[in-house]
Design a protein that fits this description.
By secondary structure, the protein is of the alpha+beta class. The chain folds into two domains: about 70 residues, 3-Layer(aba) Sandwich (Glutaredoxin); about 140 residues, Glutathione S-transferase Yfyf (Class Pi), Chain A, domain 2, CATH 1.20.1050.10. The chain contains ten helices and four strands. A four-stranded mixed beta sheet has the order 2-1-3-4, covered by helices on one side. Helix 1 runs parallel beside helix 3. The chain is globular and about 50 Å long. Its main location: cytoplasm. It is an enzyme of class 2 (transferase).
């Protein structure tokens, strides 16, 4: 009998990047133990030992080996359990390069701009920031049209790497829409992304692991009030 694999995930319930790991593990039907961390209080010894550089989540521990950074974890899950579930990364090198490029754009440029625009106290900075966010969504709209090849997801018929990357932020987007009365994903401007967002959040793999929008909205409101 094969030895049972030990898979542990350290995270926080509200983190979109932790949701990435949860979605990938579910796509691959991997059983794992989840450990909730308190990043605002006392971080566990396991977290401090496993990620001494950043001391942040997510952290995946597979048979005693530690894997860090959310998209790196998603790739590791895809490659390690490649015989289980759909492939997360595209099989063709060009398609993989596209998925990695646009995921890097989301993480390094688009989402940081969105967060800065929603948190700033300067009205001018908010207007300019949200304009840049909208321009980024138009770029992602075009990317979806090209990458999805007319299918429901960036990954085609099933959720893939880019879906997990951008989709993990959808709950925060929708929570901020409710809090601030903004329309961020506008159906008239980005119809493909608008439809994709609904399909992603209603997918059985996703909706069981991402937090509820109202719960995130309350958490965001509490966090913003404590920072002010």
């Amino acid at each position: 009998m094969a030895e049972k694999e030990e898979v542990n995930l350290l995270g926080t319930w509200y983190s979109p990047v932790v949701a990435r790991a949860k979605i990938a593990l579910r796509l691959k039907s991997v059983d794992y133990d989840y450990f909730e961390e308190d990043l605002f209080g006392s971080k566990s010894e396991l977290l401090l030992k496993s990620n001494p550089v950043h001391k942040m989540v997510p952290v995946l521990i597979h048979n005693g080996k530690t894997i860090l950074e959310s998209l790196n974890i998603v790739e590791y899950i895809d490659e390690t359990w490649n015989a289980s579930g759909p492939s997360i990364l595209p099989s063709h090198p060009y398609d993989r390069a596209q998925a990695r490029f646009w995921s890097a754009y989301v993480d390094d440029k688009w989402f940081p701009t969105f967060i800065a625009a929603t948190l700033t106290t300067s009205e001018d900075a908010k207007v300019n920031g949200m304009k840049e966010v909208g321009e980024g969504l138009l770029l992602l709209e075009d990317a979806f049209a090209s990458i999805s090849k007319g299918k429901s997801f960036f990954g085609g018929e099933t959720i893939g790497f880019m879906d997990i990357c951008l989709g993990s932020f959808l709950v925060i987007l929708k929570a901020r829409e409710r809090l601030n009365g903004d329309t961020i994903l506008d159906e008239s401007k980005t119809p493909f992304l608008f439809k994709w967002a609904d399909e992603f959040l209603s997918d059985d793999t996703v909706k069981i692991v991402v937090p509820e929008i109202d719960k995130i909205a309350k958490f965001e409101a509490k966090t913003q009030s404590s920072d002010s």
